[in-house]
Amino acid sequence: MSQPLRILRSVVRFIHTADWQLGMTRHFLSGEAQARFSGARIDAVRRIGALAEEEECGFVVVCGDVFESNQVSRQVVVRALDAIAATPAVTFYLLPGNHDPLDAASVYKSPTFSNHRPANVVVPENSEPVEVAPGVELVAAPWFNKHPLVDLVAGACEGLEPTGGIRIVAGHGALDSLSPDRNNPALIGLERLEGRLGAGSIHYVALGDRHSTTEVGRSERIWYAGAPEPTGYDETDPGNVVVVELDAAEARVGVEVRAVGVWRFVPREWELSSDRDIERLAEWLGGLAYKERTILKLALVGQVSLAQKARLDSLLDDHADLFAALESWEHRSDLAVLPDGADVDDLGLSGFAAEALDDLRGLATGDDEGRAVVAQDALVLLHRLARHNG
After folding, report:
1. Res 7: pLDDT
2. What's the burial of 171, exposed, middle or buried (CB within 10 Å: 0-12/13-18/19+)?
3. Positions in the chain whose pLDDT score sits under 70
4. Based on the domain organization, do 85 and 194 belong to the same domain?
5. Are 245 and 227 in contact (CB under 8 A)?
6. Does the residue 5 lie in any domain?
7. Does residue 277 sit in the same domain as residue 224?
8. Global pTM?
């Protein structure tokens, strides 16, 4: 059972963040873009430290998945610790999560981490309350393997008594109120946390695992900070950290969401059926800012002619060189290429080439979907080659 805190401080300010996933790779990024993507995640660590100084926050709580895995490269570890060391007056508490658990192969136990670890880095190895400032305790729930069989946060809070100081809980994982997997024994119990907050044994719950910044529950004291740089298209509000101010004397909590991320994932569906539709797509692509750090996924639906498809392909090829990545949203794309009379007349083909064109047109509109797609692609290529050679 924990001892009552000394009532030495009634107000504390700190930064709550999570899911840095340093060393993350994405298959759709080229080598050059991947290097910039990786570098941006390290840069975000520096921005978090600078923000902590600016906001007069004495410490940063990183709630799990600091690293993408326990097998990240030496360079990732060294650069991460160097970024943290840039603000030596700010202490960083790095909580092991499901990506980087505190197991026998843990990155936190590696010689690289130990040899380069700055004095302002603390890795909680158990759930014993740690005084992070006079009258302020941090209760952490580190992961020791990838598949815990209990609610680690509930275990960390076991035996905590009401206190006149401030107590912060740091955890990682899915809350039972948000998870569709009700049979997962590691789900974090929301109502148990609300009860402890109401009783005064804890005062704020900092969580990681959900990459979108999210407030949960009725107490206004349970938050997922979200990832400081986005990691995928399904995240609704990534790229943030949370600046928290707790006042024990007035039983008040202040939470401010601050944007620190610079990359973005943009999914978009476009319906195309005319030259004007393609022009609008070109205008939209041209108007997107920071293309070099934008990962774009397009779902194209509709029906276009050969000439329009050739123009579309050229447009996408040009922009693929500008964006960090430009992906096709395959399972939502449904763009038919149906050559019209103008396409055929414009090509001016004769003889064998004209016969091949007629055969491809027939396949492109046939019932065999697989052959139709191949024929449509072949028609577009034929059109581009004929126009180029003409």
Report:
1. 47
2. buried
3. 1-10, 250-251, 340-354, 357-358, 361-362, 364-370, 372-373, 375-377, 379-390
4. yes
5. no
6. no
7. no
8. 0.87
